Amino acid sequence: MANKIEKDIHRFQRIVQGKVRENLRKYLSKGEMIGKKGDHLVSIPIPQIEIPHFRLGPRQNGVGQGAGENGDPIGQGPGQGGAGAAGDSPGQHVLEVELTLDELAKILGEELELPNIKPKGTKTIVSRHDKYDGVAPVGPESLRHFKRTYKEALKRQIASGTYDPANPRVVPIKRDTRYRTWSEVQEPESNAVIIYMMDISGSMEDEQKEIVRIETFWIDTWLRSQYKGVVTRYIVHDTAAKEVDQNTFYRIKEAGGTMISSAYKLCAAMMDADYPTAEWNIYPFHFSDGDNWSQRDTEECMHVLRNRVLPGVNQFGYGQVESPYGTGKFIKELGQLSTFDNLVLSEIKDREHILPSIKTFLGKGR
Fold first, then answer.
1. Largest CA distance in the chain
2. Are 346 and 317 in contact (CB under 8 A)?
3. pLDDT of 149-208, one tens digit each?
4. How many helices (H) and strands (E) would you count in the chain?
5. Which of 107, 139, 145, 193 is a plausible cystine mate for 231, CB 3.0–4.6 Å?
6. Rounded CA gap, 219 and 359, in Å?
7. Rounded Cα gap, residues 235 and 197, in angstroms
8. In terms of domains, do 178 and 223 share one?
């Protein structure tokens, strides 16, 4: 029975994953999967899956059977549903399921045919955790190993001749008790850092920031599936750049002009101070509407990218989000750096272009 239930669970999970894959573009454009993101799980509403329910056959006396016809709604009568205005039609059920971020990354990778990334950095983070890998005759009661205690008692009774197969009663005594023991395990994890930069000038409105939020969620999900150790840093800028936390990055509202070079200089300073390029896998991503203060500052951006950022990163991604107020010229200026194959440019006109943009950023396997 347990095996049958387990098979049914796996089958249901495959159905759910299939539904997510079928509707991936909708989920990406609407951001439905991001709303309840926890440490490891994301809740996804799946309205296409019908919730199982019981149906009685004709002329059978069952619990709850009474006046009415099969299929009649159960309640206070047609069109009634308690206080307030209620409809007279059965409701549509929405089933909310949970997938791990690794499962979402797998679905994204299969759907977009993303290649796995081969880490560049040589240095690794060493993580330490306890692993239960032994048994001892002493220890705390909370770590008592019941199976090994039973086996020790059984061996003792068999050896002493007190075990009766006709009455197989095994009673452990104190010297039979066994306890779990542990040791510290050190595991290397590849170093990777993602540096997100976003223009928060007056021309970047809420819709543009929401597109950035959705796209960075999926970029983050994929890269974390490729590396065991990932650090994320956030930079916002108008005419000046500053580092912020994740919540501020997505919620900050400011206005003013735009000097993109301020963000690139801060990114380069982070790399110089904390992430040696020979040891870290570095992924800067910059999102803007393509409006910059002056041609002089654009030339400064090219200088910083060419000499301080691009030579040492796995990939630099620039996503230009279309805005009614932005000029959109900056992506064309970045074309001057086409000799750097680790520079990836993407135009994101609206939410429907999020999926192609993600494929553009992640499809090179860097």
1. 94
2. yes
3. 999 999 999 999 899 888 888 989 999 999 999 887 766 556 899 999 999 987 788 888
4. 10, 9
5. 193
6. 10
7. 5
8. no
For residue 195, give Cα distances in angstroms to 32, 238, 271, 346.
24, 17, 9, 17
Helix residue ranges, H only, 319-353: 330-334
d(CA 172, CA 131): 27
Pair (156, 240) in one structural domain: no
Amino acid at 201: S
* Rounded Cα gap, residues 97 and 231, in angstroms: 28
Residues 85-94: tens digit of each pLDDT: 555 555 544 4
**49 vs 17: CA distance, rounded Å:** 12
Residue 287 is inside which H or E element, if any?
strand 281-288
Calpha distance 118→357 (Å, rounded)? 21
Torsional class of 189: left (φ above 0), alpha (ψ -120 to 50), beta (otherwise)? beta
In a domain, 174, yes or no: yes
In a domain, 146, yes or no: yes
The domain of 292 spans 188-362
Which residues, in sequence order, are bridge partners of residue 242? Answer: 236
167, part of any domain: yes
Say whether pTM exceeds 0.70.
no
Which pair of structure tokens corresponds to residue 123? 């240095």
